[in-house]
């Protein structure tokens, strides 16, 4: 059975050096990124976690991609019932299309789009009629939380609610930073939105992946050439997080059990 429309189903790191990315994230999160490409004709490697599941992939940025303005980054794929119809809704709701819909045989149909604030993400309908578990609120090695930092929180919520049917069931006041607004697909909370601060990381989607030991993850980030920008810090519910960047400057989050 497929995931409900609007559910995150895949996470992807674009990088100029997949081997360096593997060495970093394998140690920080506890993944096993494939050592060799898995798709003929392109350098694409699967992110494997304990138990045999996969959370996403690592794609090498070619010279052509880099020359065209592509940058290293984390992206997610949002599962939809109909890619072409969703792309039309994206445009009607004020977003835009970066790469129009295309199909990869045996994988599915997808498109790269952006919201009205210019922040990119993919929409996809996988070809196999299977449920993705790449997003799991408590799954080890999986994405536990999807966080949108945006210059227009109200406008972004209207967009994602219209296109994907997301709801925003609760808020957490953060003082001068405004409200932290939770995002749900059906009965499942998948993340939150917040207003991008004037200083700090640029607006965008940030993804938090679960590791067994947040202190160890933080120390490993620093030892492997990355930077910890925040934390370890406790969040509601008792977990602890860090916000970090890898050696290429790509922002990501790690979440782990509380003390």
Automatic annotation (TrEMBL):
The protein's name is VOC family protein
Classification via InterPro entries: Anthracycline_SecMetBiosynth (IPR052164), Glyas_Bleomycin-R_OHBP_Dase (IPR029068), Glyas_Fos-R_dOase_dom (IPR004360), VOC_core (IPR037523)
**Sequence ranges assigned to domain VOC in this UniProt record:** 7-126, 142-257
Write down a Pfam family by its short name: Glyoxalase
Q: What is the lineage of its organism?
A: Bacteria, Pseudomonadati, Pseudomonadota, Alphaproteobacteria, Sphingomonadales
